[in-house]
């Protein structure tokens, strides 16, 4: 059996594969590469929610790979982020970074987000054909997170390119090189904030470091993680949401006529085409049973929010975009202690984008056939390479 998660068709439309796997069992054993190894993929909603919260599924990649030969050269600031830790280390790191992404600070960012969206949309005019990914979905989130981190404006395009390279599926050389470039840059930026404090997010992390709550390496690693996670998911969310709406003219018309509904339908847009297809790495520390499937100790367990959000047992008629649906239980941002730290910021950015976009360009439509769209070749992220639209 070949790995169904590496089929080229999976990157274009993973939902048929997810449905097939879920139809056989909510937790499915699949081969990994051509080495005879295997993983367990969790595709059922109830099972995914359970797995997200199960402490027997560890995020500590160093623990899993200890003693295994590796040909990779990932920088430790990328390979050993908060996402690759368990409590109590994870608890301590999340406590350090968390305050910047609570509702209060996010609300204070809204005027800046609106200003950036205005500037990006201001160069477009009715009748234009534009790439919504390159012109809006990419620059907005990276600009916002770079502003929070204090990345100079002239460096942001370069930083975004390195971040994108970290997801170059099938190109470990490019991923490793990008990890060193990004980590080196962030180490220099952290040091500059140490010399010249600016009161920003990195400065707050440095204060925690001075108090003994974080090491210097942890400050750099958190900076890298916040940069990457702070825009990649939102970029995909914006692109996927706009595509879903232009493919469903009735839904688009409803939001165009009543933009006040946009905050209430974000969960359905997240559910319908989750920006995260398969969550980051976990492994079993002991034998366990999920969804009636026995999972031995010491194997990778891949939780698929993209599959769980289309589980008909939780969301009836899941392949239909239904703006009246209560999708607040969707798992696009995960669940439990590892739930996406930046979810409030991602929601704020997406809400402002959709409101401004539909207000300025109410007649937006897809400029190419759907089958011509190119998707990123990574099973972690679910996002478009480009989205040509006619305004």
Automatic annotation (TrEMBL):
InterPro entries (alphabetical): Cyt_P450, Cyt_P450_B, Cyt_P450_CS, Cyt_P450_sf
Keywords: Heme, Iron, Metal-binding, Monooxygenase, Oxidoreductase
PANTHER family linked to this entry: CYTOCHROME P450 YJIB-RELATED, P450, PUTATIVE (EUROFUNG)-RELATED
Pfam families: p450 (PF00067)
Protein name: Cytochrome P450
Record organism: Streptomyces albidochromogenes
UniProt similarity note: Belongs to the cytochrome P450 family.
Alphabetized PROSITE patterns for the sequence: CYTOCHROME_P450 (PS00086)
